Request: fold
Amino acid sequence: MVVCCCVLVVLAACRTNDTRQRSETAAATTNPETGLATSAARRSGAPLVFVTNEDADNVTIIDSGTDSVIATVPAGKRPRGVRLSPDGKTLFVAVSGSPKGGPGVDESKLPPPDRRADGIAVIDVATLKPVKTLRGGNDPEAFAVSNDGKTVYVSNEDAGTVSVVDVETGKLLDSVRVGAEPEGVTMRPDGKAVYVTSEATGTVAVIDAGRNRVIATIHAGKRPRSTVFTLDGAKAYIPAEAGGTVTVVDTKTNKPIKTITVTDSGAKPMGTAISPDGQWVYLTNGRGGTLSMIDTARDSIVFSLRVGARPWGVAVTPDGKKIYTANGPSNDVSVVDHSSRTVRHIPAGRSPWGVAIGR
Reply:
């Protein structure tokens, strides 16, 4: 009898342990209404990688420790820009009801926009569940989050404005007119200014974050797409897609101090990210299919690597060991090992656009 009880206790303990292990390594569960995975346990404890899929209306979530997809969550129409809150607890995604256009598309033949779908989707990182959608103006594409996580600055491509939105209440605090077709929005590290690139005017508007006013305009080449800063905020790097260049700006004067020409064949400079040690700026080159590394000490490109079909969004893991790029036409994500400079690919959704990485 004692032996049987011991066996039962051991079996119960094994079942408990097995259940715990299965729970800790569980794959994503599926939402019966959408057919999409909506939650998953971290498999390795490594930071999560969030990839927006513009044509799939969802976000692919990758465990950076195993480089495996662990969840897919719905986000809204045409998810593009993506950022995490400073504390890493909230994922923000720009969603848009405007039909997909682009170079060579006759926009007069496109269907009318669905303005009810425009906004910034708010997703809880712990549960991977949508919380709400902030109304951020017409056709939001990219945005910045304030250093305290209380405000988002949203570019409205169709309207030529930046919407300033309160995260908690969803209230529109202000609207700032910038150049035509605003694209990338980035908060300077000190939190005092927001830089907004405008494709049609080839300029970058510098917005005073305290007064919500444009205080400077920087000329930055043809079709500037994004901005990234050195860790101390002293310099900004602004890639110009049509110009094939990166403009380096002194942020004290907001004047260009150097222009870097990207010599990769077919390069269309797009997305930017900086390494955690501040030594490298990583630059995606769109239709050129490459990732360039800029040495921030010399402000010159020291290496380029072919990564995939039209890489756009780019982000770096907190330890600086891996770089992830979103490759729209091939529906995948490239993972670049910084040390070995080798590349592998992870399937994502349809038309991956933006990338953000947690802690």
Summary: The longest helix spans residues 2-24. DSSP finds one helix and 30 strands in the chain. The domain at 80-219 is CATH 2.130.10.10 (Methylamine Dehydrogenase; Chain H). The mean pLDDT is 89.
